[in-house]
Amino acid sequence: MSARLRVAIASYGPNQFALISTTLAAFGHEPTVYLMSRSMRPNTPPEPDVFDGIAATISAIPAGIGLLLPSGPADLYPMMSGFAVDLLVVFGFNWRIPDDVIFAPRHGTLNIHPSLLPRYRGPSPIPWAIRNGDKELGVTIHRMTETMDGGPILTQASVGDLPEVVSHADTWRMMQSGLPALLGDAISRALEGDEGIPQSEEAVSDAPFPPAEWNEISWNQSRWDAHNQIRVFRFLHGSAGPVVELDGRRIQILRTSLSERRGPVVQCADGPLWISDHAPA
């Protein structure tokens, strides 16, 4: 049995905190305090969805666990220092975490990133995986350093296959299924003094926030690219699809196929793409 750690968790919503917290407890560790940003950008009023997330987290937080709501990154170190944690686990925190916080716990800070790093460093790895037509969702747990998503890797694996129509519920189910074992392994390695495997800088790809041009469909690209652009649009916008004009009508494209189907067809740069599901705009 490994040493019992006092662990701080930095994340963004009740489901995320609960998954990490219950996993830590299952491996014999003590979730001590939650850190949650008060807004998407430091030192600004909370956005409505952030405010809703804070309220839901307060309602769900277990007894005995503290909750810190810093207004900006400079607040993190003085607020967290009183809890004397052994480890910080980060899962989707909204701000860049200062170095004094990263290196304060005696076992350091672990970051959970939903990609197979060094592929897709940045804030939007899952949308980029869908946009590029990746077949699976990967998760990496690495030591956090000064380089965003660039620290040495402790463990990583695929947690599931990405379906043709991908929803946030799909990717969350994959995380729920695959993350606990990975986190338990990463913490065990950290306790053993494993520094992790350095990432290959030559293999890095970036995953910035989705660009505005993803909202505009062009048939001048390849069939594969157009097909995946429509898939990621639906992932980002729920059940909606991009609006195009076809045969004098404006329609929402909900799903396309690379193989022949009944229904409208458009010509892309390298051949036909079939519109297998659509709705009036």
UniProtKB/TrEMBL annotation:
Gene Ontology CC annotations of this record: cytosol
Q: Which UniProt keywords apply?
A: Transferase
Q: Which GO terms describe its molecular function?
A: methionyl-tRNA formyltransferase activity
Domain spans labelled Formyl transferase N-terminal = 80-159
Pfam families, alphabetized: Formyl_trans_N
| Lineage: superkingdom | Bacteria
What is the protein name for this chain? Methionyl-tRNA formyltransferase
